[in-house]
Every structure is written in C-alpha cells, then in structure tokens.
Amino acid sequence: HHGQLPLNLTGPAVSLASRPPAPAAINPWDVMLCVSGTAIACENAIVVAIICYSPTLRTPMFVLVGSLATADLLAGLGLILNFVFQYVIRSETVSLLTVGFLVASFAASVSSLLAITVDRYLSLYNALTYYSERTVLCIHTMLVGTWGVSLCLGLLPVLGWNCLHDRSACSVVRPLTKSNVTLLSASFFLIFIIMLHLYIEICKIVCRHAHQIALQQHFLTASHYVATKKGVSTLAIILGTFGASWLPFAIYCVVGDPDYPSVYTYATLLPATYNSMINPIIYAYRNQEIQRSMWVLFCGCFQSKVSFRSRSPSDV
C-alpha cells in the first residue's frame, strides 16, 4: 500500500488496510512540500519580526504586508506539520485539523493580497485623503474580514464538511469534498478577477499621472517614461506571479477527479505554495524601509548605537 499523501490527496492506488499500517515510505513530493513550507516559514518569519521590531513600520501598507507575511508563515508551518503528522501521527482527526489550518492560512494569504491591492488603489485614487482616520478604519475592517472569512473556511472541514464517511463525495484533496473545493476555487477566481480589475485601474491612474506631468513640463522626460514603464511592469509581474501560482491548482480542483493519479494534484499544488515563497520578495524585501529595518535588526546586536528603539514616539 502507498503511504498517505499530503492533505490526504488520493490516487487510484490508495487504500485503507484493516491491519495496523506499516511505516509509510516517504514520498518525494511530500519532501518537496515540506522543504517549500520550511522556506516559506523562514522567509516570512523574518518579515514578521522586522515589522514587529520596527516602530516606523506602522503605516496601513506595512500592516497589510504584515498580515500577508503572518498568513504565509502559518501556511509554511502548516506544510511542515502536515509532513510530520503524516508520517508520525496518522489520525483522521489530526488530518482534518491540518487541512483546516492550511485552508485558513492560504485563504488568509490570498485575501491579504486582495487587501494590499485595494490599499494600493485607494492610495492613488484618494491620494489627498489617504492618510486619514477613514483609511485606518478601512484597513482594520479589511483585516477583520480577511481573517474572519479565512477562519470560517478553515473550520468548514473540521465542523463536518468533509468526505471521511462518504468517499464518493471526495475531491482531489481529501478529506475536502468536491463542493468544498469548488467553493474555494470560486472564491479564488472572484478575488483574481477583482485584483485584475483593480490593477488595470491602477495602471490607468499611473499613466494618467505621467501624462499630466508631461503636459505640465511640455514633454515626457525619459525618467518619467522609465518610472511609468517600471510601475506597470511591476504590477504585471505581481498579478502574473499570483495567477501562475494559483490558477492551475484552482482549475484542477474544479475539473479534476479523485480517481486521477495523485501526481496531478501534487504538480498543481506545489507551484501554489511557491506564491507564499515569492510574496515576501515582492512585497517586503524589495522595499527600502524593510531593507533598512532588516539591516538594523540583524546588525543592531553588533552596533548597539544603531537601534530603532531609541527613536521618539513622534517617529512612530
């Protein structure tokens, strides 16, 4: 018998034995998912530590980046725990808890990306009123909604929406049901469409601003052209990376059948985890303030005179 697959992904050769299960042979795909989870956890733990450590990083944008990093950190830990429990503690209860944890974490990650996109749009569309109490309230509302909805989605399989007692209802990701993964996929497609629409609007605003500057100066300078092109290219990279990572898995969850070889699920799930590995690079490590705070965080132990903690409250 084959060993239990991650998230209990089922293939045609998987079966349950009545006798005590033999030690499962380690699946290379499971190892890759665990390695991916480890990299995700380490990368995002650094981002979370930097944002928590640096009092200057308290703006709405960095709060949302911190939410994204926290969600990705939990997702990475979930992949590691799934690997450990899969080969150490083989229990349906643990399996449900692990799957629910991963669903909630990845849902929070995708929702946080949407929240960051909305924030970027508002910062351009309402530039004059962006730094106001209304914006802070909007950010907090988005955060509560993001984590509230994600937690509910993660609790669904734990509270009974699973196929442990009806294998005909199983999806390509056992013990999630077909209707459950269809709901998750539909939610992803909706978020992707909203993000696509917002990024198109952002590109229009950026190009319009560049055109207005050109009219004021009577010509479009090379620096303005380069900046505009770079901004649009960055947005395309962000959206392209997000879509390339998650679309294959979301589509396969809808069209796939649990009788298909489990390698198909692995091959689409693994790239989806890479999005959580790329997020801190796109949204955190490329930011100069994050880079500066990272330098202080890691070098402050050796250069005690350089520390954010000595700053006054007015700098927060």
From TrEMBL:
Mode of membrane association: Multi-pass membrane protein
Domain G-protein coupled receptors family 1 profile: 43-283
Gene Ontology MF term list: G protein-coupled receptor activity
GO cellular component, one term: plasma membrane
UniProt entry keywords in alphabetical sequence: Cell membrane, G-protein coupled receptor, Glycoprotein, Lipoprotein, Membrane, Palmitate, Phosphoprotein, Receptor, Transducer, Transmembrane, Transmembrane helix
Principal location class: membrane
Spans through the membrane: 29-54, 61-89, 95-116, 137-161, 181-200, 232-251, 263-285
Subcellular location, record wording: Cell membrane
PANTHER family found in the cross-reference section: G-PROTEIN COUPLED RECEPTOR
Family classification: Belongs to the G-protein coupled receptor 1 family.
Identification of the protein by name: G protein-coupled receptor 6
Lineage of the organism: Eukaryota, Metazoa, Chordata, Craniata, Vertebrata
